[in-house]
Each structure stands twice: as C-alpha cells, then as structure tokens.
Design a protein that fits this description.
The protein has 359 residues and is mainly β. It has a domain at 59-309: 6 Propeller (Neuraminidase), CATH 2.120.10.30. The protein is 9% helix and 41% strand. It has 3 helices and 25 strands. The strands form 6 sheets. Strands 1-2-25-24-23 form a 5-stranded antiparallel β-sheet. A 4-stranded antiparallel β-sheet has the order 3-4-5-6, with no helix packed on it. It has a 4-stranded antiparallel β-sheet with strand order 7-8-9-10, with no helix packed on it.
Length: 359
C-alpha cells in the first residue's frame, strides 16, 4: 500500500503543472462526430456505433485514474482474440482464441461470461460458431477435430465428426437438416446430416478451378440455402447451391476495390448481399448478388470504426434496440453488423446499416 501511495504522489507532482495550466485555460469543446460509410456529404449507408472489448464498454464505464496507472486486468469479463461471432435475441456469442472458449455477451445484463461447458463439452480450440433457429449452437473445434453441439441453454448435446472425417474444421454453417463444415486442411466442405450426425457428402477439392478450393477458412449460408465458401488462398469467395453446384465467384487476387488479399469471415444479409472481411485490407467489402462491389467500410488503424486483423463477421436483425442509443439523429438503423478484431483497442466493432433521414 505504501508503494502504491508513493506512486500516486509522484505522478500527482509530475502532472501538477499541466493540471494548473489546464485549470487556468478554457479547453476547447470537441464534438463527437458520428462515423459514416460512405462519409458525408455522400449519403451514408452505415454508421459505426460502438466497440466492445470488456464489460465496461457495455455500461459506458470509463477506466479510472488507478486503472490508468496500474493497467487493466485480463479477466473473464474481457475478450482475448475473438475469431468468430454469432448472435441471438439479447446475446452475442464469440469464439475466443485466448480463453479457448465461447464468450457470451448478455446485452440485457451487461455481462461477458465464458461458456465453461466442462466434461464432454469442453472446448480446446474453438474456431467457428453457428446458432440454429432453435437456439442450439454448433462450434467447430480445431484441436478436437469435431463440431461440438450445445442446446439453447448452452448444455452439451453431442458431437459431429472425428479425426477420420475431419482434419482441421475451421467453420460451420447450417441450413435445414444439413450441417456444412469447412475443413481447411482437406480443402473441402464436409456435409453432415443434422439428425443422425452421419457424413453425407463433400463439396470441393484442392485446386483453383470453379468448385475447387485452396485453404478454405470461412463459410455461411443465405436464406435460400446457398452456400458461400471463403476460398482464401485462391483469393475469392465461391457460391454454391445447397447440394454443392457451383454458381459464381466473388473477387480475385489483387489490391484494388473488389479484389481480395486475405479474405476471412463471410455473411449475407436478407437481400442476398455478401459481406467479406479482409485481414490484409482490414476492411469489409459488400457485394450484390451478381458480384458487383457496392461499398467497403472499416480500414486499418486504431481509431473508432477502424479494424485490426479482422476475422469473423455476423449480421443481427433482432438486437437493434440495444444499440439505438448510439444512432445518429439523422440515421435510421435497419440491422447491426459485428466484426471481430484479433488485436488492437477494439475487439468487437459494431456498425449499423440503415438509411440517412437527414436533409
């Protein structure tokens, strides 16, 4: 306690001149401007709303002077390296690469808690997560070489696959009775029967032609059952029918708008537009169903709205009311977009997609 008090005294003495000068001058009032994409005076379609890294961000609590001096603490209430994200009503779920667990953000209670399933449900290296319509959760675990299934109350139910059928399951998606598992090492997507757990088929193989993959990392399905696969080392995203018939590709290798350098998470909105995270560009690009680039948002840096090694992405239509308090008076949110950052100041960026209603 004596050393802590001595540290406070030293810092107080060092800061005294600055504090005196500040008290004798009127500090300029800086307005907290909203961040839009595209930026004004163009008509915005997205607004950066907030970032969540700990429970303090859920309550808008600011670190105190003691936290500034002594540093924050890494606890269950903070995020480590969130890699994937999904949401249900009132809750956000993250696959965290530091705790090697699923973190649950409760938007009503303003808490962050790990799943801590234990027993047969213990996770080792969770990578991808999908939440079905009934609230059950499917988690792709790299080290277990399985998809671990939990019910709507986060209780362990069963597993899909094993070391013979899966080698490096990095992501999972569900449509109807089909469970799609992206295997990065085998360069394909394994399809399981959701009821029996039996393997049904595979989609893709190693290569660079249509329907072939080189290190696929992320998958998603749209409301029609179409499958989207991030074909990472071929620098593109491929779209398939539910049974694996190739439809089209999005993007190509390059460093211009519409191209891809290090594509990661993928998701679609209710209109069929595709959102692709790029960890090299550190942004998200939005393509229409025909593959035309519509908009990009984010960008490298530590400023609000920027991204730092982004990975997972999710779209949330049900939890918009929780984020209305961040909404600009001239902007009306339709849905929320979450983007995970593996490092940097802001672990989970929250954006709102909507309409400009100002003049």
């Amino acid at each position: 306690m004596a050393s802590k008090n001595r540290l406070l005294l030293i810092v107080t003495i060092l800061l005294a001149p600055a504090m005196f000068i500040t008290s004798c001058t009127s500090a300029p009032q800086i307005k907290n401007e909203s961040i839009f994409y595209p930026a004004l005076p163009e008509k915005p379609r997205l607004q950066f709303l907030t970032a969540i890294s700990s429970e303090d961000d859920l309550t808008d609590k600011k670190p105190g002077f003691e936290d500034f001096l002594l540093g924050g603490k890494e606890t269950d209430k903070t995020m480590g390296r969130p890699y994937a994200v999904q949401a249900t009503r009132g809750k956000i779920y993250l696959a965290d690469r530091v705790s090697n667990d699923i973190l649950q953000i409760d938007l009503l209670k303003n808490t962050i808690r790990p799943l801590h399933a234990g027993g047969q449900g213990t996770l080792q290296t969770p990578s991808g997560i999908w939440i079905a319509d009934d609230g059950s959760k499917y988690v792709a675990d790299l080290k277990r070489k399985q998809v671990v299934v939990y019910d709507s109350d986060d209780n362990f139910v069963t597993t899909l696959g094993d070391a013979t059928s899966l080698e490096r399951p990095v992501d999972v998606a569900i449509y109807g009775e089909r469970v799609y598992v992206c295997d990065m090492q085998k360069h394909h997507v394994m399809v399981f029967d959701r009821v029996t757990g039996k393997p049904l088929s595979t989609i893709g193989k190693l290569g660079d032609k249509e329907g072939e993959f080189n290190r696929p990392t992320h998958i998603t399905v749209d409301r029609q059952g179409n499958l989207f696969v991030n074909d990472a080392f071929n620098f593109r995203v491929q779209k398939f029918t539910a049974d694996g018939t190739f439809i089209r590709q999005f993007g190509m290798a390059g460093n211009t708008p519409g191209s891809m350098a290090r594509p990661k998470g993928v998701v679609t909105d209710h209109d069929g537009n595709l959102y692709v995270v790029d960890a090299a560009f550190e942004n998200v690009q939005i393509f229409n169903p025909e593959g035309k680039l519509l908009l990009s948002f984010g960008g490298a840096g530590l400023d609000p709205g920027s991204m730092y090694l982004p990975a997972g992405i999710a779209i949330d239509y049900v939890n918009v009311p929780y984020f209305r308090k961040y909404e600009n008076e001239n902007f009306k949110i339709k849905y929320v977009i979450y983007v995970c950052n593996l490092t940097g100041n802001n672990r989970l960026n929250v954006y709102g997609f909507g309409d400009w209603i100002g003049e």
